[in-house]
Amino acid sequence: MNQERSEPRRPTEERAQEEARRVVEEAADEAAEAVPEARAAEAADRGGGAGGGGGEGRGVGPSEAPALPELDVEELRDRWQRAVAETENLRKRHERQLEDARGAERDRVTAAWLPVVDHLELALQHSAADPRAIVPGVEAVCQQAFAVLAQLGYRRIAEVGEPFDPRLHEAAQVREDPAAPQGGIVQVLRSGYDSDRGLLRPAVVSVAARPEA
User: Fold this and answer.
1) What is the mean pLDDT of the chain?
2) Which 3 state secondary structure label does DSSP give 146?
3) How many CA atoms lie within 13 A of 108 on its CB side?
4) Rounded Cα–Cα distance for residues 66 and 76 (Å)
5) CA 204 to CA 65: how far, in whole Å?
6) Any long-range contacts for 196-202 (C-beta under 8 Å, 24+ apart)?
7) How much is the pTM?
8) What is the per-residue DSSP string for 115-138?
9) b or e along 105-119 (b: 16 or more beta carbons within 10 Å of the residue's beta carbon)?
10) In this predicted structure, what is the pLDDT of residue 47?
11) Which of 88, 146, 170, 202 shows the greatest Cβ crowding within 10 Å of its Cβ?
């Protein structure tokens, strides 16, 4: 009679074991969040086992939460620590890559400006021999600097005769000029620059106003 009563419980125990393995595998996939929960579940299961007793004789129902062995908790802790270490290594590697990219971009921009600096030095060296020759030399270097800015993707803003645009220009002066249209730029005090990414700095200009009658 005892043997006949114990036979129907075997499928239930097998289902409980399969459920236990499934829960452990899911907990391992969520190691970072499961370690505190696994510790709490383990403590609760140990307390329930000590107070109830005879668990093997009762059988384990499918709805009961299986106890996580100590080995599984240690494995989850190890996986969590590995995940934290890999995340930290990834962050450091990303920072190094960003710094390398910034350094490479600084080198590229500096290399583009070196010819301008060289020509300025040559103009200063020849200024003592013929001071009048320095003006054309500086003008040539200025044009070269404009070309470097254009090569780097920056465009000059504001030309005399253009209408004033508050999005691109800053009005430093308002000058009466009957020959210029009202609101037009009559003088560029400081050139502005923009690029495809947006405005780098606005142009500072003088704006024409109609003379008072």
Assistant:
1) 78
2) helix
3) 9
4) 16
5) 74
6) 196/153, 199/157, 199/167, 199/168, 200/154, 202/157, 202/168, 202/169, 202/170
7) 0.54
8) HHHHHHHHHHHHHTT-GGGHHHHH
9) eeeeeeeeeeebeeb
10) 59
11) 202
* Alpha-carbon torsion angle 154, 155, 156, 162, nearest 10: -150
Q: How confident is the model at residue 44 (pLDDT cuts 50, 70, 90)?
A: low
Task: Summarize pLDDT for 119-178 with one digit per residue, the tens.
Answer: 988 888 877 777 777 888 888 999 999 999 999 999 999 889 899 999 999 999 998 888
Which residues lie below 8 Å from residue 188, measured CB to CB, with a gap of 6+?
A: 158, 159, 160, 203, 204, 205, 206
Quickly tell me which residue has 């005399």 as its tokens: 160
CB 68 within 8 Å of CB 26 = no
* Assigned token pair, 114: 């070196």
Q: Which of 82, 79, 70 is nearest to 39 (CA)?
A: 70
Q: What is the pLDDT of residues 2-32, one digit of tens each?
A: 444 444 444 555 665 666 666 556 655 665 5
